[in-house]
User: What shape does this take?
Amino acid sequence: MLQRMSLTEVKDILKTWREDNSRKSDEIIEHWEDTIREEIDDLGEEKWMILEQVCVAGFDTYRPDVVEDTLYLLIQQFTPSSLRVKRLIAMRYEMREEWGEALEVLDQILEEDEANSSARKRKIAIYKAQGDTSKAASELTKYLRVFQSDQEAWQELCDIYIQEQEYNKACFCCEELLLHNPHNHLYHQRLGEIRYTMGGTDNLENAKQYFSQAVKMAPSNMRALYGLLLTCTQLATNPKCHKKKDYAKIVFWASKQISARYNHAGLTDKQSKLPVIEGLMSQLDVSGK
Amino acid sequence: MGDEIEISTRAYCKMIMHSAKYPSSSVNGLLLARTDDLKKGGKICYVDSIPLFHMNMGLTPMLEVALTQVEAEAEGSRLALAGIYHAHDNIRDNHIDTFSQKIADKLAENQPSSILVTIDSKRLSQDMESSGLIVHQHMDGKWKLK
Assistant: This one.
């Protein structure tokens, strides 16, 4: 359980979560019940943002009581004609799974303000919740044509395409993310994994490049190291391969890096990890290094 | 005929806790059973489960690494990979997606009576009336609901 924290501490934590966009709904509700609910009027300028944050946490954890308390105050202050409040009303319908009513409210928002990105995203979320992934994907594509720099949306679309096994399109989304964040090793690693999943020599070559880049940026990225190991082993054991020696070198290097990291983490029990690497290395030996 | 299936408390709790820890993501993991049980046939007890992923599901490289590592580890303790479990992020979604099916088929190649467990998110709550699991077992080349 949380210790009794001061209002200022709670306000700071909530602010950090708002800025990071973290999904800590359980904790937010706890803070609401322990601290904030009694001292609403002392919240100052952040009062309405905090109420909105708690309201959304209430939707996420299915707490209609919290939702009613917070939404009531917001509606009183901003009237139901405020677009931000309307979005919360739509989300309340979503919570109750009354999809039709929710979509109606969201369409009303979009009539007033066509460029309202949050309403469009809520609609996409509704299609996803209903299980209609193809509709969600097509709406999301339409959305991204207008809002091309919305990275959350590109990530969501990438996930949807991986789920639908449309790996080419998933690669495209991941590449867009990379354009916006060329120094993020996680996106390089992700693209490497998608390419590896697609299979085929060209994709494996491509995957190797992405994994190498990820490892270059973040030498401790275990997934990228393993990815590099797997990719190069597969490339080296391909009967039509010409550059076996080069791939073998990378495999040895990667396996040493992985062993070093395991040792570093104190898991010096070599037996647990060697089989993975041994298995892969023996494949290389058989093919004639 | 159909093998009787028992899922140990340990395996069950780990599965449920894994899905509880990540309520808004899809999760999956592996199930282990004793090699002796599997050879004998009859009742199979799934003694342990190993949670695997809650992000980036549907991608193969890390899955391959995981399968190799778990298999190697299990062999040391006279256990074998005998099933997988998965849960969807959508509470009403119980279908078996292609990726999980492929993994299950691959496992079944090596272990004929493998099981594929889908966690039924709707039935998970603080007071559950049933186990909340949908179990398919691989028998005679097909997946049958138990």
